Amino acid sequence: MEKRKCLCVILWKAKAGDSDQKVLLLKMRAERGGHWQPVTGHVENGEDFAGAALREAEEESGFHFDRKPQYLGMEYRFQGRFGAVIERAYAIWIYGNTPPIPRLDANEHIAYQWVSPEEAAQLLFYPSNKEALLRASSRVPPLFLSKHGLWFQEGEEISHERTVELLHKSLLQMKTNYIVRISEEEAEVIVEDVPRFITSYDSKSGTIRMKGDLSVTLNPDQVWVGGENILYCRLPDGLAAKFLSSAYCEIAKDIEISASGEHLLHFLGGLHRIRIPH
Fold it and tell me: What is the tens place of the pLDDT at every residue in 136-159?
């Protein structure tokens, strides 16, 4: 069984949105490698990765954070000293007039420094640490689209309704990632689950409406049940979409389970099997 680890890049800014920022690096004790690194640690039993990233960030720095770490969309698998490891990368931001002084655990770290992202990239030992640092400290901090369809940047939820709608509408899929493009500005997007979220379903027309004031006709042959019995579909542009609870309640009225246990969708006079991947 893989051991779970997390790394968490702590960044300081005078205020949210500033381009000037510093990264907290911690120096390991010599017997633990003696190299500089961001916060890292093991995920304990009963914890998820995000919870572990927050706990480790607070324990190793002595800081208190009023928001959760933001997932950077990076997951690494490697062989550690005691077997296979899966590690996920997070970032968390702290604001104030000057970078705060951390309270180190002498059993793990012997020194700290706040440095620019460029300096940090030169000091870090592991390539995965450098990749996480570069993504977290990019000129425009990455956006995060949660599995519930909520937007975050620098760990803070974006709640302005018109801004949220614009972000959903402006989301684009590139070859290997997602971006939001508004006029000439672009920002990378970390998508936790799927890029589209269905808010309503009209059984009379077969139309699904999504966040961002987008609507298309559902393809009933591209509907499936995912983890936690959540309903998904593939859109005409190839993107995946999740039925939110309101839309699921509407389409569920047209779903029946056959005697053989198949899930069947009544759609515009036809009957279509819903895929349940194993």
Answer: 999 888 999 999 999 999 999 999
